[in-house]
Amino acid sequence: xxxxxxxxxxxxxxxxxxxxxxxxxxxxxxxxxxxxxxxxxxxxxxxxxxxxxxxxxxxxxxxxxxxxxxxxxxxxxxxxxxxxxxxxxxxxxxxxxxxxxxxxxxxxxxxxxxxxxxxxxxxxxxxxxxxxxxxxxxxxxxxxxxxxxxxxxxxxxxxxxxxxxxxxxxxxxxxxxxxxxxxxxxxxxxxxxxxxxxxxxxxxxxxxxxxxxxxxxxxxxxxxxxxxxxxxxxxxxxxxxxxxxxxxxxxxxxxxxxxxxxxxxxxxxxxxxxxxxxxxxxxxxxxxxxxxxxxxxxxxxxxxxxxxxxxxxxxxxxxxxxxxxxxxxxxxxxxxxxxxxxxxxxxxxxxxxxxxxxxxxxxxxxxxxxxxxxxxxxxxxxxx
Length: 384
What we know:
alpha/beta; Zinc Finger, Delta Prime, domain 3; 3 domains; five-stranded parallel sheet; 7 strands; 54% helix
């Protein structure tokens, strides 16, 4: 790369240098393609070059960096501005390829060149997966360039449904969607933007020329995804449906064998959260803060009118701090338990927690016995 003796300021360089990265591969690719197309239109030139930066080992990473240098040093054939896209880079993070000394040194050297590179006739877009922010390369890019990060939605994030809904509403083109339909759609598909995008396209085609998407449309055409089925265990407990609950428990323990990020304790805490929500709803109904409501919008209005000091400010301690639609779906489930039964259920789950931690008993059997004890009394009536 040819070097200039002066370092450009960020506002000047950022117009010509961009890093788009994150573990949400779908959003990274979509945004990078958008930026690349905009830059190509603005340049008014056919001088465009895409360098494949996906590397399986250190040697391939070094070759990719070398090809990038060549692309940046090659002047535009037809004048104007040349647009270079360093696409799908996978060696800016912490994996084996990125950790090699030769790759680290090559990136550090390239970072120094970026500081003084003349961007008059060249624009560089880098798209990447995970990036190690501690490395010299990222620190240099962050100071010089336009940087955008796209993180995956996670089911462990209590705000994931809100974020997914905002994303869906931004993606709707010429259509609107009712609040209940949107919430049902997101909860059915789960926290995966690629799947949400695919299902949204299918839903839009199903609705055809109609401008508004309703709940019936979502239920008719949307495929319930695997990640959304993670709620099945808690929903079966809320519905007091023992056969469905035991099937969901078996499926959950089967999945634990193949996913080290999940555990029996995690399953148990999900059930505890469900009982806490049911208890809070029962108490709010008994105190007159909430009434049985079949309309989602009216139910949300009730939630918003509840006294702010009714529950702790810390959302982790507030059982009703979750998404309104999740709470709305739990409301009719409160009819299946009395308050006394819900309190007893919490005690049973606490005992189960101790057994899972301190005993050598089979975990699946311990949880199965606990759930049979909670649900086995049949459907409870009344609001007592």
